[in-house]
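A sample copied in:

***
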Amino acid sequence: MARRAVSAVKTPPQSDGARTAAQRTVDRVLAPRYAIYLDEVSRCIAACVKVMKRTGDFSPRVKEVIDEAGLSNQAFYRHFASKEELLLAVIDSGTRDLDVYLRRRMGAATEPVGRIRAWVTGFAAQAISPEAAAATRPFMIPSARLADRFPDAVRANEEQLTASLVEALADAVEAGAVRDDIDPVEDARFIYDLSKEWLQRQLTAPQLPAPSEARKSARRLEAFVVAAIGGE
């Protein structure tokens, strides 16, 4: 991922007899710097998202980002080799937040198909209102452009988002609530691809659909997915 400088500086272990005295000395010296670096990276990510929301430009200039973050060029390039690496970190941050949100919604469902419905509707909810769409665009729009340059990282983010869906599909098969020929991993990918295409179409439309129309379309998406897996 893009947080190279931060990931290279590990917090010292509480107790590790296998480490040499020299390694423990380096750990002790670098520990305060770790917190500084983590703060710089977090400020860059937050600033990038803020600039994209404000300007509608999903490939902002580095200068705009560092000015917003209140950092220097040196601080920026200490962590990111390019603007694209920063955008990748932005996507990673958004992916983690969305995964937490989807899992929370799924946790409220009482049976596997309900969890699958919750995943689809939760994913689609990112484009239901203007506020949700504005918050989602900075994480979703750059993803397609970065997939060619960072295929492994983008794929890892997608696998993180579909992991909970894979689990729900597997549970639904075991419970006999869906078709018995469902492949949880492959079919989770199909559902993700369909839902992502739906979301991108909403987010890139010249004019965002009215919330009522978006909700109606999202319900059709949910119904289509459930019908496809043989659920009720």
Remarks:
- The chain has two domains: 1-81, 89-232.
- Residues 21-55 form the longest helix (35 residues).
- The CA atoms of residues 124 and 199 lie 6 Å apart.
- Residues 1-15 have pLDDT under 50 and may be disordered.
